[in-house]
Amino acid sequence: MKLPVLALICSAALAWPLTAPAAGGGGGDEMASPARNQDPEFQAGMEAVRRKDWQEVVVRMDSYIKRKPDDANAWTELGHAHRLTGKLDLSLAAYESALKIDPKHRGAHEYLGEAYLQMGDVARAEQELKVLDKLCFFSCEEYRDLKAKIGDYRKTKHVSSGS
């Protein structure tokens, strides 16, 4: 009788979510903290992300980062906003800053892969996918999202797989 109870407990533990939902999308466990970050500037930036007001995200996250330069989540969202406004150099620099702070930041790796796709560099996007594959215990949202975007890119650009 003890064995079925133990199996039930183990299966429930595996099904329990390990992280909170990502704020702003693209993030995993490290992106769950933005919802808990009570800084008004950061919150305003995340609200701008939800509205897809990328210029406002840049203003808010840039202001926040001046006070809190060690926040990988803010750097990631700043890079995301720069990328979506076409400022790829600024985007790449922001992702680099995020990854210096937290080399395992899944959201930064996903968005960096998307930036490489935007630049037409499928090989580097696939490298970010490989990093995400190693970072995710099981498949994670960031891995699945980037994999799908690489697949979509290949279909629309008719690019063959390099692996």
TrEMBL record:
Q: Which UniProt keywords apply?
A: Signal, TPR repeat
The record's annotation in SUPFAM superfamilies points to: TPR-like (SSF48452)
Q: Does the keyword Heme apply?
A: no
Q: Where are the TPR repeats?
A: 72-105
Source organism's superkingdom?
A: Bacteria
Q: Where is the signal peptide?
A: 1-22
Q: What is this protein called?
A: Tetratricopeptide repeat protein
The species is Ramlibacter alkalitolerans
Lineage per the UniProt record: Bacteria, Pseudomonadati, Pseudomonadota, Betaproteobacteria, Burkholderiales
